[in-house]
Amino acid sequence: MSEEQLAALLAKLRDDEGLQEKLKGAADLDAVLAIAKEAGFDVSKAAWLKYQANQTLELSDEELERVAGGQGDPDGLSKHCGLSIVKSCD
């Protein structure tokens, strides 16, 4: 059920800039999950981390090098790490 909730949250984030901004300001994963819960989504840490890991695996070697090399995120690559929500993906 949590993965279904995560899918619904991600779908809502595509259109809800206010929720995007709240999540971008979250200090850590616990804060992200609390904001998601306030918005009506019951997402577990395990579901979030699994999603994040899968998105990271989809990055090309070039994208990984660019992000890991401190070149920032010129192409919005952090979106692969949970839509830029968790600061550790920046």
What is this structure, in a nutshell?
The protein is mainly alpha-helical. It has helices spanning 2-13, 17-24, 29-38, 45-57, 61-68.
Low-pLDDT runs of 5+ residues are: 74-90
Amino- and carboxy-terminal Cα gap: 28 Å
Beta-strand content bin: under 5%
Mean pLDDT: 78
User: What portion of residues is helical?
Assistant: 55-70%
- The gross shape turns out to be globular
Rg over CA atoms: 13 Å
Number of β-strand runs: 0
The largest pleated sheet is described as: none
Number of helices: 5
Q: Report the structural category.
A: mainly alpha
N-to-C series of helices and strands:
HHHHH
Would you kindly provide a written description of the structure presented here, covering whatever features stand out?
This protein is mostly helical. The protein is 57% helix and 0% strand. The chain has five helices and no strands. The protein has helices at residues 2-13, 17-24, 29-38, 45-57, 61-68. Helix 2 (17-24) packs antiparallel against helix 3 (29-38). The termini are far apart.
Topology summary:
Layout lengths: L1 H12 L3 H8 L4 H10 L6 H13 L3 H8 L22
Essential attributes:
90 residues; mainly alpha; globular
